[in-house]
Automatic annotation (TrEMBL):
Subunit structure: Homotetramer.
InterPro entries hit by this protein: ADH-like_N (IPR013154), ER (IPR020843), GroES-like_sf (IPR011032), NAD(P)-bd_dom_sf (IPR036291), Quin_OxRdtase/zeta-crystal_CS (IPR002364), Zinc-ADH_QOR/CCCR (IPR051603)
Protein's name according to its UniProt entry: NADP-dependent oxidoreductase
Primary localization class, coarse: cytoplasm
Native species: Streptomyces rameus
Pfam family, one: ADH_zinc_N_2
PROSITE patterns: QOR_ZETA_CRYSTAL
Source taxon at top rank: Bacteria
Family matches, as SUPFAM superfamilies: GroES-like, NAD(P)-binding Rossmann-fold domains
Keywords: Cytoplasm, NADP, RNA-binding
Amino acid sequence: MKKVSFAEFGGPDVLQLIDAEEPHAGPDQIRIAVRAAGVNPVDWRIREGQVLGAHPIELPSGVGLDASGVVDEVGQGAEGVEVGDRVFGEGSSTYAEFAVLSAWAHMPEGLTFEEAAGYPSVVETALRVIREVGVRSGQTLLVSGASGGVGSAVLQIARDRGIRVIGTAGAANQDYLRSLGAVATTYGEGWVERVREVGHVDAALDLAGSGVLRELVELTGDAHRVISIADLDAPEFGVRFSGVAGSVPEALAEAVNLISRGKLHIPVEKSYTLAEAPAAHIDSQAGHTRGRRVLVV
């Protein structure tokens, strides 16, 4: 089978499309014929060799955590799933023609494989940071870097819970943020004042790692009311860095619930082939994404 792999840490050029042995489902796992794989910032952070304790790896390594596809192998003890089922979930080395998933859910009706591949890690992260930052119904949440996959999920989940959201993003994504129910404002000079003009901020999330933690702490008045998923220097500001996943099966179940109720939709901004994985990483790393980027197999 074809698989994206890297034998050394480095830039996008270390990614190679290789011939590899097919993986097989172990106990409580399934294998899928991959139809699409989600491209997440954690993928290129791991490729660069950043210290991410939740994702220790050995070289050479495959790439990717999220995927959607058709079940073609069911491991011992895996229940409620059969060969031929359409599923999406999280596993390892998902930039490949076949991948093993350790957490999965059946795809909601009407969802394409490309769309489904963009949800697993994104929704888990969104649910986790909303919980960790402690924001409640009736309060206001500021989201820095709100137009990407996690931001798109955070805005919609927060609105469904009665939380007012203020989102920051580039000028081109202002209407997109408004379409998700956010009060939108741009980055750049004067952004703190623009946020203050639209109201008090109870909690804040840094999703882009754009060097705004000092300002987020200033706006909330409490470093404990700020969470970052993108700035490894967060502890220097007294801010918690959230990088260890919670329950992925629970997150997938909530994703199915939200999607089925019409409360969550994350668009796919661009699709790539497996051979174009380096380009996908370059684009992901550049930021300014609206929704998700995925690889189509």
